[in-house]
Each structure stands twice: as structure tokens, then as C-alpha cells.
Amino acid sequence: MLDKARSLADELVRLRRDIHQHPELGFREFRTAALVADTLAEIGLEVKTGVGGTGVVGQLGSGPGPTIAIRADMDALPIQEKNDTPYRSQNDGVMHACGHDAHTAILLGAAHLLKQSFLEGNWQGNVRFLFQPSEEAFGEDGISGATAMIRDEALAGVDAVIALHVFSDQPAGQIYFQDGFSLAAVDSFQAWIRATGGHGAYPHYTRDPLFILGPVLTALYGIPSRRINPLRPSVVSLGQIHAGTASNVIPGEVYLTGTLRSFEPAVREQLWVEVENAFKISQAMGGSYEFQLIKGYPSMHNDPRVNDWIQAAAGDLLGAESVHETELGMGAEDFAYMTQLAPGAMFILGASIGDGVLRNHHTDTFNIDESVLPTGAAVLAETARRFVTGKLERAQE
Predict the structure, then answer these.
(1) CB–CB of 152/51 below 8 Å?
(2) Rounded-to-10 torsion of CA 75, 80, 81, 84
(3) Does the 185-295 domain belong in CATH 3.30.70.360?
(4) Are the CB atoms for 335 and 83 separated by under 8 Å?
């Protein structure tokens, strides 16, 4: 399978660069979806478009037996690219800065490989290819691409679902796994502390909201260490604080927004309560508050059995020295919605260029080593092939 994938290397690079040059934001992936649909049709798959808005679903096999789904996300980010490459973004202010262009190209490669396997026969199941819109953001209806595709029954009848994510800070071609909770639930909040402003020379005539902000900040940052069980991971981080218009004017309001991260549902719900409680301090100091919680993605849970399938396939293709366990991450992924409906797992594919330039995700210099594209396609395809041919194996202990 790896040799077959490597024979597709030039085509996978072409597809990735085409998508990279024409990035599209969530639920606007019209060109990308058309490219995906046309490519799947050329491969010979049954294709359905407009799933979850701009999503595309390809189906290989329609007979009895279990179905495994493989998911890739297609959307880009509102970032102006700074990379000086022949395939840099041609759309001002939009960039594939998280590797979704690579994910899409990799899954198209897996579709090509599995079509060859399908023609060879001996299949006892089916493979569904999910090209998802808007992983990075919610649409106008308040849902992301995974939920939109689920709503349109893209996962109906699916018995397992797998995916990968390239990581620009891990060695190229290395595979990383994490059983159980892998990525965090993400929620955000915005809040206003309101009091009485006034002249900066006469603070005693005010109920200064910036003064009130001090103990509120202490309470917020103390939540993970003093309110949550220290054995249960959690994060409270502020991203914005805005107040005032002049140096000698005490404002009447302070605006804050931040992010909350957790793994366990009970901890997530406790964070919601504790964060609002921190803002109640403003009432004791003569002010008031308004608090709005914006619930985001749930935590992503990797099924150990599905992880074993992927790990066994990756180990056989790449060698055990290329397969590693990794620690939990506090990032978030809406693939979590899919793993709530079917046993599933996402693995990390290292893709560092290794050129000494900082190319972190969600930055204007993000880039990957394209030599990993066949690797990702081979691991996904081989895992699915074993699933539909009844040849799954547990990873070696």
C-alpha cells in the first residue's frame, strides 16, 4: 500500500498545492468541493455534494457488511500568508494555515488506493469518504461542519470513523497516537464589568470597573488551581480586555473574552459555573456584570480499539520505530462530534519541514513537508482495507 501511495506522490502534491493556492473559509468551500467531487468521480466513486452545506461524501461499496468512514476537513483561515512559495495563497486574507489542504489531498489519495483494492475483490464492507466544511468555525446557525454533515446523515450506518491531522512541529513521517481523551472541549465567554466612571483626578467619586477587574482576574486565573481538582486538566485563558478611551477618564465598563478547555464533562460544566462566579465579585464591590457563555466543541475521545487498528497498519507500513504515543493536547477538533456517534480515532502525522523556521499552526508562515502526503494516504487506506476485508489486527503490545 505504501509503494502504491508513493506512486501517487506527484498527483497528491499537485492537489494539495491547487487547494493551497485557492483557500476558502468555512461553508464557502465551493471551488474546493467541486475539485473534490470531480476527482472522486474520476476515480469511480459514488459522489454526493452539498452535504452539510458545502461538504462532499464519496462512497465505495454498497453491499452488506460494516462501513468505515474517513474524514478530512477542507476549510482555510482568515490569515494573510507570508510564505514565499510558488503555491502561496492567491486569495488575499485567506490561507490554509492548519493543513486542511493536505488532509483533503491525502483523503483523495486514500480514495484512489482503496478503489484499486475494491477492484481486486474480497471486500466484506464499505468505505465512506467525508470531506467536511468549516472545522475552524461555526456557521450562522451556530454549528460547525461536522455537526452539519451529521445533520445531513453523512454518518448514517457508519460503524467506525477515522481521521488524521498533520502537525508542523513533529518530525516528518512519524505517527502519533493517544488513547481515550485526546483533544479538549472548547468553550468561550464574553463578559462586561460595569460600574460608575468619571474623572481620573477624582476616583473617589467613581466605582472604577478597572479596580474591580483586579480581584476578578485573580479569581479567574485561580479557577484551575483552586477550584478544579488538580488531577483533572483544565484551562482558563483570557484573550481580550478592553476599556476606556483616554488616560484621564475612568471608564464605566470593561469588556473581557476568553477560552475554557477541559476533557471531562463534569469539569467542563464546573468551569461554566466557576467562571461566572468570578464575575459576581463585581457586585460585592459596587458594580455589576453581564456574562455570556458560548459552548463549543466537546472533547475528542479516541477509541482504543480503533487506535489499535490504525497503529497496527502504520507499524506494518512504516516500522514500529515510526509509531509513538503522545500526550494530551488542549486544542480542539469538531471531529469529536463524529466520534460521539461511532467508535473513532484521529492520529497525528508529523510534517515538519525542518528548515529552522517557526511554522506553527494558525500562523502566516505555516507550511508542511509534502513528502508525508503518501504516508498519510497509505495509513488511512490500509486501515480501511483491513476493516472491509476482515483482516484487522491489534497493535503489538
Answers:
(1) yes
(2) 150
(3) yes
(4) no
Read off the pLDDT of residues 335-351 as tens digits, 9 standing for 90 and up: 999 999 999 999 999 99
Report how far residue 240's alpha carbon sits from residue 293's, in angstroms, rounded to the nearest whole number. 15
Dist. CA 148–CA 70, nearest whole Å: 16
Q: In CATH, what class is 2-181+299-388?
A: alpha beta
Residue 233, SS3?
coil
CB 301 within 8 A of CB 179: no
Res 375 pLDDT > 80: yes
Express each pLDDT in 272-303 by its tens digit: 999 999 999 999 999 999 999 999 999 999 99
Q: Which grid coordinates are listed for 130?
A: 467525508
pLDDT digits (tens, 9 = 90+) for 29-41: 999 999 999 999 9
Phi/psi of residue 215, each to 5°? -65, -25
Q: Strand, coil or helix: what is 318?
A: helix
Greatest CA span in the chain, whole angstroms? 84
Going by their DSSP bridges, the two strands 55-60 and 126-132 should be labelled as: antiparallel
The b-or-e profile of 191-219 (16+ CB within 10 A means b, else e) is bbbbbebbeeeeeeebbbbbbbbeebeeb
- CA neighbor of 68 nearest in space, from 393, 373, 380: 380
Cell of 211: 479596580
β 175-177/344-352 pair status:
antiparallel
pLDDT tens readout for residues 235-264: 999 999 999 999 999 999 999 999 999 999
Which residues are known catalytic residues? Answer: 297, 370
How far apart (Å, rounded) are the C-alpha atoms in residues 169 and 179? 21
Tell me the pLDDT tens digit for each residue of 169-214: 999 999 999 999 999 999 999 999 999 999 999 999 999 999 999 9
The two beta strands, 344-352 and 160-171, are: parallel
